[in-house]
Amino acid sequence: MVNKKIEERRITAKDVARLAGVSQPTVSRVFSSDKKVAPETCEKVLAAVLELGYKPNAIARSLTSQRTDIIGIVTQLSKGFFLPTLDMISRKLQKAGKQVLLFNVEPDQVLDDVIFRVLQYQVDGLIITAATLSSKMADVCARQGTKVLLFNRYILGTQVNAVSSDNVEGGRMVANCLLDTGHKRLAFLGGGEMVTTTVDRLKGFGDRIRERGIEDFIIDYAGEYFYDAGRSVGKRLLERPDRPDAIFCAGDVLALGVMDAARHDLGLRVPEDVSVVGYDDVAVASWPPYDLTTVRQPFDEMVDTGIEMLLRSIENRDSEPELKLFQGKLIKRSTVKNL
């Protein structure tokens, strides 16, 4: 039975502690998802919370601890292929006792403008998956004490953590795959011309092709990693008089668009008339209508390592930023023909 005097005033953590028979710091640890608190203790505290109708005040806690336990995620929801990874990131952060604040970047928005808005919420950390952070904004985050993790992209020479696929090596793997199967008229289709994923995949692809004796190949850009852009630019590539016999797309979504342009817009066959290789190994890539040869990124490992890096940097403010690259794997399906 709740004491009537308690009912007449605002319920506090002290009241919860007294009813549960634990210390006030223990109550705080329960609400911060501290794994060191025994399950039976958690049950007693939560039972007291329900009986008293206690409502924890996250804002008051943040004023005391100088932390909000909020991690901002800046992403581009229009790129739906990334949603499973976004779900994975959110689940792991919540399991670590962090709350997630999601910000969506529209295709025509400037990323730095969105970051300014995010920083107003005093987030402890920031995960950026949408685009590459500018050096200027990276410095702003550093001065404000907000730790940043770039996911599948990086900026050299800044105070920012990053995890990424080894995109240069991935591009080299694709080059070897196409050259080993006898292709000679090669094309590369990237997303944004200045995006690090596009730049690095093109570098690895082009370097390896030249090392193996082919100097010229076609380069084109879709501007964004969108299906419609891939289909439009793919059609343009395949209508050239010097039509390529293989196209390496810097993202699976672009590759799906290229395949549909070939088959449905131009009446070509994949891979009989043109081979197509993607990058990422999104779920749709393995579906029977596409069965796309691609480079698989180890997203599980990248998420685990990235979150560990970010949380470690939040705990240790003086830690040096890290860049970790992960090896991709060539997944051979049915979109590359042996010539």
Question: What features would you describe in this structure?
Answer:
The protein is of the alpha/beta class and 339 residues long. It has 3 domains: 53 residues, 434 Repressor (Amino-terminal Domain) (Orthogonal Bundle), CATH 1.10.260.40; 127 residues, Rossmann fold (3-Layer(aba) Sandwich), CATH 3.40.50.2300; 131 residues, Rossmann fold (3-Layer(aba) Sandwich). It has 13 helices and 12 strands. A 6-stranded parallel beta sheet has the order 2-1-3-4-5-11, sandwiched between helices. A 4-stranded parallel beta sheet has the order 7-6-8-9, sandwiched between helices. A two-stranded antiparallel sheet has the order 10-12. Helix 8 links the parallel strand 3 and strand 4. The protein is elongated and about 80 Å long.
Describe the structure using short key phrases:
12 strands, 434 Repressor (Amino-terminal Domain), Rossmann fold, 339 residues, four-stranded parallel sheet
- CATH C-level class of the largest domain is Alpha Beta
What profile does the largest beta sheet have? Answer: 6 strands, parallel
Oligomeric grouping of the chains: single chain
- What is the beta-strand fraction? 15-25%
Break the fold down into its secondary structure elements and pairings:
Layout: H1 4-7, H2 13-20, H3 24-31, H4 39-52, H5 58-65, E1 70-75, H6 83-95, E2 99-104, H7 111-119, E3 125-128, H8 135-144, E4 147-151, E5 161-165, H9 167-180, E6 186-190, H10 196-211, E7 218-221, H11 227-238, E8 246-249, H12 252-265, E9 275-277, E10 294-296, H13 299-315, E11 323-326, E12 329-331
Parallel strand pairs: 1-2, 1-3, 3-4, 4-5, 5-11, 6-7, 6-8, 8-9
Antiparallel strand pairs: 10-12
Helix pairs in contact: 2-3, 2-4, 6-13, 9-10, 11-12
